[in-house]
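Justification of computing resources. Each target in the renewal requires a structure prediction run like the one illustrated here; the chain below, 208 residues long, is used simply to show the kind of job we budget for.
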Amino acid sequence: KYKFKDKLSNFIYHNKTWILLFLVFSLISGFLIYDLASRKRPDITILLLSADGSLGSKSEDIEHLFEKYIYDVNKNKKIEVSVFYLPTQETATNAANYQLQMANSSKLYAELQSSNSLIIISDSRADEIIFPENIFYNLADDYGDNEAIKGYSLLLEKTKFAEMIDYNGTIYDDLYIGIRKPNEKKKMQKNFNIYYDALKKFIDESTD
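Resulting structure tokens:
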């Protein structure tokens, strides 16, 4: 019979590639979580998850749009909105694409572990990663009569979003904006109130 030490060595030998990838992913995620926790944050951060690169190029316009919905939260005497664009991709077909996917997954994981980045613009492909039904606040509870709102999502195709950011591309019917629901942490609850107030102002203006 094999001893435990022999079994362990045999397991590591046959799975060393996956073990190495897991360790690298863990190290990257740990560093990013620490960096996010210690970094000075903008007033709000919005995650943009989409395979549409042309929409990603409008990140700055989205930032300018949301500047009018927020105040100087971090008290540095200026309004700062940051849109963090993470492209969603199909299954990687080579090592370079796999490494890029892994890096983006680590960044997204770090953001979702923080009490910031509560507002997320997403689509059906990104939903396969973030499981929105588990993390988003149900907007329909507050906007039951708004036809642009379906459960946790504000369907951007049914709003003035494209016009507001001067976007000439296609807003697909699966693109939406939502907000992560707060957990028991006081900081996240505080941030939720701030972010949701900004999102409600956007909802009111974009669906008026």
